[in-house]
Every structure is written in C-alpha cells, then in structure tokens.
Specification:
The active site is at residue 48. This protein has one domain (3-282): Alpha-Beta Barrel (TIM Barrel), CATH 3.20.20.100. It is built from eleven helices and ten strands. It has helices at residues 24-37, 51-60, 81-95, 112-125, 138-146, 166-174, 196-205, 209-219, 231-238, 247-254, 269-282; strands at 3-5, 11-13, 15-18, 41-43, 69-74, 102-105, 131-134, 154-158, 178-182, 223-226. Helix 3 (81-95) packs across helix 4.
Length: 286
C-alpha cells in the first residue's frame, strides 16, 4: 500500500474501498471481504444508506481500529450547524465508532458554511481526524478554504482517464488540499474498459484496464476509491503496487482527457435542480 500525508499530518491509504451503490443486504460481506484482501481505507456516506452495515463489518473484522481509515459524508439535507453536528453523531453511532478518520460535505449546495463550521468544531473535539468537502469546484474550494479557520484537508471529486481534473488538482495542491477520486473507472461509461490505449498499456504489464487506471492515479498522487462486490476484483484492484507506468505511458493516458464530466457538472443550475429533487426524494430517510 502507498500513503499520502494530509496537511494536518494525518496519514491516509492511497487506495480505498468505496461502498456507493452497494446494497444493505450485501454491504457487510463486501466490506469484510475488502478488509480480508488488504483494504484499510473504507469510504461510505449518509446518503449511501449502508453506514450501519459498514459499522457491523468494522466490528467483526478483527483489525485494530487504529489500522483502519473510515470516511463518511454529510448529506445536503443535514447541512446547517446544528443538523450537521447531530448527523455526524448519528453516523458515529451507526458505524459503532468513537471517532471518524475523515468527514466530507457531500455536495457544494445549501448551507455548507454552517455545516463546515460544525465539522471544524468536531475536529477540534477529536471526533474527526480530518475534514473536507466533495464535488467542490476550484472556485468554491478556494472560497471555503480562504474563509474558514481550518481549510479542507481533502476534496473528493470525479477523476478518471476521460475527466482528469488537472487544473482542479493544481488548485488543490496550491491550497494544501488532497485530491481524492470517486468513479475512477467512470462506472464503465464510454466503453472505458475497452479503451485501446489503456488495454495496450495493460497488456505490456499483464494488468487489467482497471489496474492501469488505479496505477495512473497513484502516480498522480490521487487517492482512489475502487468499488466492487466481487472478491476477485477486489484482489485485482489492490494488486497495483508491483509495477509502475513510464513517463511516456502517463503522457498517453493524459491525452485521453476530455475535460468533461461523465456524470454531471456541479456548476450548472440543472444540477442544482437535480439535487433538490434527490433531497426531496430522500427526505426523512437519512
């Protein structure tokens, strides 16, 4: 495993296991399998509806708590100072933990200023070891970093070979914020697993396209969250520390960048409207 050191000296495993879209019914087993094959960084969220199952797996895995790095994210409808305080405490209860390693604000909408102040206070209390945001564009990241006592330690954004976030990462480096990738495989969109460039590089090292993508992210110093419900794939995804891409191969992958999200642009009014509908749909369920 490789690691990054955040601006507050907290050490985070560079490769994590994400549980987005893993159902409650199989989440506990999946997380236990991930820990068994070597993952120590687990990423969940209030809006994934599986914090309790992640908590069960943490309780049963037999790994000392200090060897695990556990992240959750505050949902938009729990923003605002008091609601965020309450929701993080509820997340701690669901996860059966005394502290969280990282808590992020899930989306850059609503009263994220009040929510962030709550994270700062929980951080000072020792309930959270690091705090951050998710899906914050460079301007919003600059804003929240510049006008708060404790700048975010992490910003989790979409990063994959077709949407590489180069300028966003440069902005984060400037502000001592660690970039973290969700959807590193783009959920297979645009036939990513059949991309000729990635397949050619993989063939050279006898590695899969997924392994090439994760290795590329490691070498860009991007923390990556890989998800799978199959233990064989979990093993494959973590077996990326025995090879290294050349500068030429890194350059070839850089040329795949379209600078366009495969999902949605957080800076459009349509995306705001979309999340308003999601908030309404999930009201009272988180």
């Amino acid at each position: 495993m490789e690691y990054v050191t955040l601006s507050n000296q907290v050490v985070m495993p560079k490769l994590g296991f994400g549980v987005f879209q893993i159902s409650k019914e199989i989440c506990e087993e999946c997380v236990l399998n991930a820990i068994q094959v070597g993952y120590r960084h687990i990423d969940t969220a209030q809006s994934y509806f599986n914090e309790e199952e992640v908590g069960q797996s943490i309780s049963k895995c037999g790994i000392p708590r200090e060897e695990l790095f556990i992240t959750t994210k505050v949902w938009i409808d729990n923003y605002g100072y008091e609601k965020t305080l309450s929701s993080v405490k509820k997340s701690l209860e669901k996860l059966k933990l005394d502290y969280l390693d990282l808590v992020l604000l899930h989306q850059p909408f609503g009263d994220y200023y009040g929510a962030y102040r709550a994270l700062q206070d929980l951080y000072k209390e020792g309930k959270i070891r690091a705090i951050g945001v998710s899906n914050f564009s460079p301007d919003r990241l600059a804003d929240i970093a510049g006008f708060n006592e404790i700048p975010p330690h992490v910003n989790q954004v979409e990063v994959n070979p077709l949407h590489q976030q180069v300028a966003a990462q440069e902005n984060m480096i400037k502000r001592n914020v660690q970039i973290q990738a969700w959807a590193p495989f783009g959920e297979g969109k645009c036939n990513m697993f059949e991309n000729p460039t990635l397949k050619e590089i993989g063939a050279k090292y006898q590695k899969s396209v997924a392994q090439v993508i994760l290795r590329w992210l490691m070498q860009r110093n991007v923390v990556a969250l890989a998800k799978s419900t199959h233990i064989e794939r979990m093993k494959e995804n973590i077996e990326i520390f025995d090879f290294e891409l050349s500068n030429d191969e890194m350059k070839k992958i850089s040329e795949l960048d379209t600078n366009t999200s495969l999902f949605f642009n957080h800076q459009t009014p349509e995306t705001v409207d979309y999340f308003l509908s999601i908030i309404e749909e999930r009201k009272g369920k988180i």
